[in-house]
Amino acid sequence: MKKWLLAALFWGCGSVALASLSMPTVQGVALGESLNSTKKKLGKPLRQQYTAPNVCNRDARDLELHYRGMVVTLIETARHQYIVSDVEITAQPWKLNGVGIGDNGAKIQHTFGPTDMINGVMPYNTRGEPYGFDFIMHNNKVSKISYNSYLC
């Protein structure tokens, strides 16, 4: 049932359903955001490229927008539109709800609530939402942020 619901969100009406949920954003961009809206909010990427076929999305090719310090991945919906499915942040100035590279665990927990550190990762993906995000830590500082939807 959960897989079917996620498939319906992303392949049918994903951009409306996901954008309306209260979820974290990167400079106003949430998962499910359209390609045009994403580019308006983030600006022109340094480059964009198509990936190898995605087995979790009917073997369609994903579209990656590369910015300095961030990669935004968009999946193709059944309506042949691209929507944001993943964001990976590796450098400033990008932040997820105000938390960015170099911030400490206390700031993360103040922003998102308590979580346990598991093998150097502060995960926020067990609440039942169709998305999750992880803060990869090094010496109690954020070194990478991974924000994604669950397709598989």
| End-to-end C-alpha gap | 13 Å
Outline the low-pLDDT stretches.
Answer: 1-21
Mean pLDDT: 84
Helix content: 10-25%
Broad shape = globular
Strand order of the largest sheet: 1-2-3-4-9-8-7
Q: How would a textbook summarize the main sheet?
A: 7 strands, antiparallel
Q: Which helices and strands, and how do they pair?
A:
Layout: H1 2-11, H2 14-20, H3 35-42, E1 47-54, E2 60-67, E3 70-76, E4 82-89, E5 95-96, E6 99-100, H4 105-112, E7 121-124, E8 131-138, E9 141-149
Antiparallel strand pairs: 1-2, 2-3, 3-4, 4-9, 5-6, 7-8, 8-9
Helix pairs in contact: 1-2
Observed structural traits:
152 residues; seven-stranded antiparallel β-sheet; 4 helices; 22% helix; alpha+beta; two-stranded antiparallel sheet; disordered N terminus; single chain; 37% strand
Task: Walk me through what this model shows.
It is a single chain. This protein is an alpha+beta fold and 152 residues long. It is built from 4 helices and 9 strands, in the order αααββββββαβββ. It has one domain (2-149). The strands form 2 sheets. It has a 7-stranded antiparallel beta sheet, with helices on one face. A two-stranded antiparallel ribbon has the order 5-6. A hairpin with a 6-residue loop joins strand 7 (121-124) and strand 8. It is globular. Residues 1-21 have low confidence and may be disordered.
